[in-house]
Amino acid sequence: MSAADQQDQESRPQDDKSGGDTESALELKYGAKNLLQLMVPVTVCMILVVANLLTVPQFGANQGTYLPYVPFHEEGEISGGTKFGQALVNTIIVVCIFAAVTFLVVLLYYYECYCFLYGYLFMASLMLLGGLGFVYVAQVIKQSNNYADLITISLVMFNLSVAGMLAIFWKSPLVVQQAALVTSCVMVASAFLQYLPVWTAWVLLAGMALYDLAAVLCPYGPLRILVEIASSRNEGFLSSLIYSSTMVWTVTMADEEHKSIPQHEPVSTRVSEVRDPDDLPEDDEESGAKLGLGDFIFYSILVGRATIDSNGDWNIILGCVLAILIGLALTLLLLAIFKQALPALPISIALGLITYFASLYAITPFTNKLAAGQVFI
Q: Does the predicted TM-score (pTM) go above 0.90?
């Protein structure tokens, strides 16, 4: 072996180590930035829901009107066990409806019924932005003791709805699309908070976390099937159900065969493979980390329910917000470690529920006792 060959072999491990260090540095840099770009819209969505509940009490006060698929309303002089049983039945019904709709979307996508699929999503989004948005604006105007005629409100909501539909389903600046999606999540979360019984809302959060876990991780889970079909066809879809950040990443999921996943995938979160930003187009707005809109909605429902039941206790509200953000960070960390798809609801919802009940029944009474006794720690 010549001296040149020996020197080349000695320098090669150092080059490999340097390349690995560079890749690790890129993952750390863009992983942190990616996390922040997911935390900001989630935090904004939760703050908007809390602001709605504190400024417009109607959003948190049910007046005898409930969702049609919630048969038990937890009214009257009934025991806690009965309320829990009714909430459990309501939760099972709601989760089954979610599962049925998800499997319907899977079937439509599998058989390439794109007209029906996008028609369904278009009508659902239109009813959300138009109908629910109209009710939302009407309640805000009523609470602020202002007046506006029906024609003016209708024209304004029609224009906003059309603009939102164009932003979601067609081409628009990414920030406009993100604003439309976050606004939709705020309105849906406010509707759930207003038209769901109290116990049902809490039990539903746990039920949806378990359903999300099964839908993503089970071999025949609907979201897993949806991702596999999209991967086999090498195409993206359902942008109306996904929030996308602006990070220039190529989204992938490490499955058994380590197949790549297209950028627009209808799942909660996915591991992203870092590429050098200099090698990517500067205006690549469609790439980035993805978070399902359902995660936004149920995060906001948890914080909103905590706001209502704690009578606006900011210690409990901020504790739940921080717990959800910590859960989201842990989910992304686990995704980076295990290199496989994980749902975004279970960890955040579990931490949020633990934080809320621990604060309500342990921490808050303890601090109140200390304040009453003028004991300062």
A: no
